[in-house]
Amino acid sequence: MPTTDEGLQERVERLERALQEVHDDREIRDLIAKYGHLADGGEDADFVDLWANDAVMDLSMGVTALGGWVEPQRWEGKEAIAAFIGDPDTAKKEGVFRRTVHLMDNNLIIKVDGDEAVAVANTFVLLQTEATVLVIGGGANRWFLRRESGRWVFVERRRREVGNPDFGPTLLDKLEVTR
Asked: Is the pTM of this model over 0.85?
């Protein structure tokens, strides 16, 4: 069947769009995986470089002594995120630092809209003790991303622990790119 120049152009454009979607999906998956690898490896400068200047990290991390949920903590901007990843009482805590593994991209779903994207996934944090690996955290994540200067960066990470009342909505709300 002969192909017209116009038909060929449409096919090429469709293929280019499809290729861009695959490329964006791969870059976003790699970015989310790097979050865990860089956090676990103590590569703070490279970790902070994953974030936009106006980025926000919004995390719930556990329960209170009375069994209620700890209010989510927020870090806004790269300086605050650098303080978070370098904090000797949390990320760099003795007995925890370089003994954890962040599994960041379990069940990942991504929606891209131009230069913005949203991704949702379950994540888990493992801790190596003397002879055992323990699951010390698990949660739902909603990542907002933006393409800046040709690369994807985090704009916001919203995480809610398993069992938190916001766990379901964090994963199940519509996959809309707007925050």
From this structure: yes
